[in-house]
Amino acid sequence: MCFARYNLYFLSWNYLLFSDFAPYRFLEMGCIGVFFVWFSWLVSHIPTWSYVILYLSVAHSISAVLHIQITLSHFAMSTESPDPVYECFAARQVRTTMDVICPTWLDWFHGGLQFQIEHHLFPRLPRHKLRRVQPLVKSLCRKHGMEFKEFSFIDGNVYTLRWLGEVASRVKLYNGRDEHSAQAVASFKKSLRA
To answer: 123: closest CA among 89, 149, 100, 153?
Structure first.
């Protein structure tokens, strides 16, 4: 995750240069280009190349915490999009994200992102207020029979890795493209709906 930011740069350019669908391709390329020129100008004021490399390494590695937090809160959760008639906005936010349990004194480390469910329900609410909203959201979930998922940081990582392993094994089956694979995919889709 320390190198995820570099991967995002690469994927952005890869998408813009080679995607069949990029409606604002030139605008986005221009904006990314302006960012790189501006950022390069800022970095050019650092006195030595060794400090430049150190700065870039530290600045981009620090974002690993953010990448891990986003991965934990989203990757292991359902991405299915049922008809909005049958699922309201709040239910979808609770189903597609999870919270990470941490003590109050560690909120600074997560930057409020450990409260992803609350953040998705109230995106404009300041992060330092999300802890206060959590008991209300949990109460609402109990009242309406929605599952409120929250894990410790370690358990969240284990849950996410297991889920990603499950998805990978199903994709491997699907790539066989035989009848057995099609049945496995149908079973997988059915389990996602459950």
So the answer is: 89
pTM of the model: 0.68
Q: Which domain holds residue 110?
A: 67-193
Q: How high is the pLDDT of residue 138? A: 97
47 or 170, greater pLDDT: 47
Q: Quick one: 172 and 185 in the same domain?
A: yes
- Whether the predicted pLDDT of 5 surpasses 70: yes
Nearest to 134 by CA among 162, 158, 102: 102
Whether residues 40 and 78 fall in one domain: no
Q: Which amino acid is at 145?
A: G
Under 8 Å between Cβ of 112 and 130: yes
Domain co-membership, 75 together with 157 = yes
Average pLDDT of the chain to the nearest whole number = 87
Residue 35 is predicted with a pLDDT of: 95
Closest CA to 173 of 191, 165, 185, 186: 185
Domain boundary among 62, 83, 109: 62
C-alpha radius of gyration, the chain, whole number: 21
Q: Both tokens of residue 35?
A: 């960012």
